[in-house]
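As a warm-up, study this chain.
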Amino acid sequence: MRALSPRALVLLGAVASPGLVALRAGGEPVLFVARRCPGQSTAPFIGIDDHQAGRDVAQRLLAGGAQRLAVVHGPLFSSATAERLAGFRAAAGERLASADVLSAPGLDHFAIGATAAQTLVRAK
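Now compare it with the structure written out below.
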């Protein structure tokens, strides 16, 4: 990318890595989209308020009469995932038992969801 002399780099869904550290240290202007810069929340960012999005989901479920809440999430290295989970937990409060916050190892979101669903069904 540097050979093309870009004026700025736009990164969608960046995750912590040695390459990202080197890029940031190189001084090129970088704009983060969808996920904040790992480890530097003040870096230029365009995206939604993920904490509020998580709150909105929990509030909608509760307003619709949900009696028991559960949340399944992927790895928490993504600022979007971590902030949405925090917002959901904040709005759900005591309606969300710690046993009903589930994840599984790996990056395959389908497999994470399937494993968590099996856990929830067995616990019912």
